[in-house]
Write a sequence for this structure.
């Protein structure tokens, strides 16, 4: 099963603040641990929302708003895309992800749906 582990941004990063060397080191260790366990598919941080846009479609109308966006705690700041055997295993990786952030972040874990390749066209939760 594939899972997306997302960390929420904060006002510091939304203002363009850079991760500390200690955070970069802890995240590097986390990524190496995930890779060694064979669960890491991809992981990256995201630039502040001022480098992005939000597109909203309602009733056939589409509006596009350039960033930045007001609520930093609602903005995804980084992610890890993993392959885990269960939600329990994904939760453990999410816990380690939060520890790598010194316990100072909100983390959300969501199972990814959709075809994974030949022979898997179910699209539903595994």
């Amino acid at each position: 099963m594939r899972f997306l582990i997302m960390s929420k941004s904060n006002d510091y990063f939304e203002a363009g603040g850079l991760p500390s060397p200690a955070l970069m080191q802890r995240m590097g260790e986390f990524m190496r641990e995930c890779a060694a366990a064979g669960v890491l598919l991809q992981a990256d941080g995201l630039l502040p929302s001022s480098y992005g846009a939000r597109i909203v479609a309602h009733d056939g109308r589409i509006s596009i708003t350039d960033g930045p966006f007001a609520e930093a705690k609602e903005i995804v700041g980084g992610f890890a895309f993993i392959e885990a055997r269960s939600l329990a295993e994904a939760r453990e990786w999410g816990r380690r992800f939060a520890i790598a952030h010194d316990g100072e972040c909100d983390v959300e874990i969501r199972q990814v749906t959709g075809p994974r390749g030949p022979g898997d066209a179910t699209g539903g939760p595994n």
